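Same chain as my last thread, 257 residues:
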Amino acid sequence: MHKLTTQSTLFTAFALVFLAKLAVLPACDDDGNGEDGLNSDEVADSETETVIDTGEPRGTAGETDSETETVIDTDADFLMSIEITPSRVESFIGCEVQLKAICQTEGGSSYDCTELCHWSSDDERYVTVSNDEGSKGLLTMLDAGRTVSIKAQYKGVSAQQVPVTVLHSALHDLKIEPAEPVVSVGETIQLEGWSYYLGWEEETEVYDWSSSDENVARVSNEDGKKGLLTGVAVGTATITMAYEGYCTSRQTVVTVE
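reply #2:
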């Protein structure tokens, strides 16, 4: 009888210890996770999150990140060099030449950065370069006598300097004959372009011809027919004869009767 009482006492003690342990364990959900829904691995991983920054928006409005983030910037396209075209310029007094800047990046991409660069000339008595918005890199030839260096810089990177040589024009003068043409509606006459080098030379075909109002007078710029003027309607129009290579032109007013 004494032996059974002892065994009953031991069984009761073990039962009480077991119930005490159950009382301190967290409640589990159906997946076996704790009350917060995270297993031990997820808890460890939630402390620090590494985020690759691709430029895309993350999350939705109102969300907050309580974890510590390590942001990695994947934009490796840093500016490496600037290339200017043309790389050398020879032109005549009075001419304008547009330079173009191309930026090359570390990532292998390129883009037109003409309007982003700061431009400069080492002698503006001979050549100027525009820094005005919309016309950056535009050269104007003012005088001959030396070769000028043009520079472009952006984000601390400088392009290779462009040498610009201004030449004296061999063309000293030009004129249109007849000087003040008069034609009737439907009538056609030939205009002539003359160039003065060491003397006057007829060069109608080397010029580009245009009319300010083709509803009044038309002038042909077709090879073999350049300078051919036709009256269209009563009025006046300005005829322009331009020599692109020398950056010069002459004009005359035609009257259509």
